[in-house]
Amino acid sequence: MDLDLYGNRIKLRHLQCFIAVAQLRSLQRASEALAITQPAVSKTLAELEAATGSRLFDRGRKGAELTDHGRMFAPYANASLSALQEGVQKLRGEFQGVPEVVRIGILPTLARVLCPPALAAFRRSSALVSVEVQTGHNLELLRRLKAAEVDFVVGRLGEPSSMTGMSFEHLFREPLTVVVRAGHPILRGPITASTLVSYDLVLPPAGTLIRQSADSVLAAFGMPERAAVISSLSVSLNLELTLRNDAIWFVPASLVESYVVSGELMHVPMPFGGTDEPIGLLRRTDVTLSSHGIGLFDAFKEAGLTRNR
Question: What is the pLDDT of residue 1?
């Protein structure tokens, strides 16, 4: 397929090569992904730069980085290739029964809250599209997004260094809460460091922003930094530990709100509050979502914004 622009022909292979180098930031890795030689990648990029009349990459020892012109061109290159791929997928889906797949990454603590309403809304307009849901901690989800393993992420705002090439659309702020089972002994008396260490403390894994908030609350009680805790992202395990083992669970508030409403869990009145964390939608600025990807993105956006109403 050729696109004739002012006498310069841009071919499909030019766009595929451009996108591979832009995503992998390396001519060598792009050549491996495209199963062609590195000189062929260089030649293809040179042809594309000649056709567009612009230098699209800065090449150096650290790899290949998009220039300002390259960043300007990237969304259009992605949109063109995505539109073609979507057209082929629709033909295959209609005649061969092969559905399109939209891949999302989401924090485990958010999946239970946001996935049901978002997927229900998405299904009303996209019944034949498959959805692949991947969970993990925030840094891992951002890595998968950068590697194009997911189309977008529902998670927390990362550190500035991890947000290069990404956009963040804020949905709501997630406060930390501390919960125990109904009738837990800790609810009957003053809460001190000595009473807290009498029970298992269930916290998010070290290195996560929500863990930093939990650690700040414990530090305010005078808890030692190396206090014995249980670190887990498993909602089912943490819930069982809280209900059956008298554990004290430091958890994002939205994750347990239904259990608090039902009376199974109760908030522990803490004199020191943790910080709220911004929750939102993250996507790459150099990649255009398919129409179904946009539909699912918008469904999660509506589900998240609804929490603020």
Answer: 47
CATH level 3 topology of 99-173+278-306: D-Maltodextrin-Binding Protein; domain 2 (3.40.190)
Q: What are the structure tokens assigned to 131, written together? A: 């959805």
CATH among 1.10.10.10, 1.10.530.10, 3.40.50.1220, 3.40.190.80 for 2-82: 1.10.10.10
Domain boundaries 176-275, corresponding CATH code: 3.40.190.10
Q: Examine domains 2-82 and 99-173+278-306 and report if their fold is the same.
A: no
Ranges of each domain in the chain: 2-82, 99-173+278-306, 176-275
Give the predicted TM-score (pTM) of the model: 0.60
The predicted structure's pLDDT at residue 9? 78
Which stretches in the chain have pLDDT values below 50?
A: 1-2, 4, 6-7, 95
DSSP track, 126-144? -TT-EEEEEE--HHHHHHH
And the tokens for 232? 């887990």
Assign 3-class secondary structure to 55-109: CCEEEECCEEEECHHHHHHHHHHHHHHHHHHHHHHHHHHHHHCCCCEEEEEECHH
Supply the pLDDT for residue 108.
84
Which of 58, 76, 54 has its CA nearest to residue 67? Answer: 58
Question: What is the sign of the dihedral through the CA atoms of 263, 264, 270 and 275?
Answer: negative
Whole-number pLDDT of residue 45: 92
What was the pLDDT predicted at 87?
Answer: 73
pLDDT computed for residue 129 by the predictor: 86
